[in-house]
Amino acid sequence: MTKMDGQVAIVGLGSVGSMALWQASRLSSSVVGFEAAAPAHPRSAVGGDTRLFRMTYRDPHPYYPLLTAAQGLWRELEKDSGESVLYQHGGLSIGDANGPYIPALLKSIRTCGATHEVLTRRQVAERYPQHTLYENDIAVFDPNAGFLRTDSAVLAAVRTAQDRGARIVRDCRVSSIRELRDGVEVSDGTRNWTFERVIIAGGGWSGALLPSTLRTHVYPARIYLTWFPVADPAQFTPDRFPIFVRISGDQSMYGTPSLDGSTIKATLDGRSQPAESASTVDRTLTRAETEESRKTVGDFFSGVVAEIVRSDSYPDLYTTDRAPLVGPAPGTSRTFLATGFSGAGFKMAAAFGRVAAEQALDIAPHPEAAFASPDRFASG
User: Fold this and answer.
1) 0.85 exceeded by the pTM?
2) Number of domains comprising the chain
3) Could you tell me which residue ranges the FAD dependent oxidoreductase domain spans (predicted)?
């Protein structure tokens, strides 16, 4: 019988890994988390201060049950940790009433039944004059939308797990995971540990740890974020300027209100690009990225200065179908995945963390996450 270092290991303590650690610590007193740097380090997909939270979501995958679960779990994390994580001041989705975005969003809303309000161009101008809408633009208001404080969420989850007895191995980049007859060996090339089960949640760095049948279906990608100054910060507080996603013609942008009293985060949507590796993403914006960002801000807003005062780039692991990999790894019996969120996972991280933890510990099957099963790529 192999001597075990714990019941379950979580490799990567970023957006989803930290949540899996938190949830696993509720179910087991023998949980170990491995982090290549430190939890919430700024070079991971956690970087950038905030992520959007929305219940109204245009996507071919059935995310609404997971978003509903995540909303409750974020509040549970706040109760467990005493930290504020989720701020719900509503959110706007803006676009052409007859374009590809708004009709698809409304179709998704009708399917899932999410609470919402459709606003005319005139109503948007009256309520949210910071937005400059085009002639055919309308908006969908989601009263349950808001933003998550990424650093606070990850650190709260890790601290709460540690309070329950979970152990953390920092500054440890796991280089291999190997299933044994009665366990799983986790190695950093120098040290080895053995666990009953392991969850791979390394974000952009997960690719090399996946079974070979999955590696052709994933790739690391670069995501960049930009911040712009505002002329009157009082007009861009969360209660007056909620989160937004806008797709108008060939222009698109998403962002959050001012949290520092001087800037808003406003970033071009859908601009991720494949990267050579998660460790080498270029943190500097290109001239084209800068120019398009400035022009879009100038076209979309009143009262926002079209000058980038802060920018950064982060890696994430993308799948070829943009659905995550959550569940048992194909061809294995003790290795579970919680990765491949393709730049859109943080809003549901608490829910996917619970799914991963409970699957790994044989607690629940979670049919609501069946679409994310890695088995869909099992044939290679």
Assistant:
1) yes
2) 2
3) 8-358
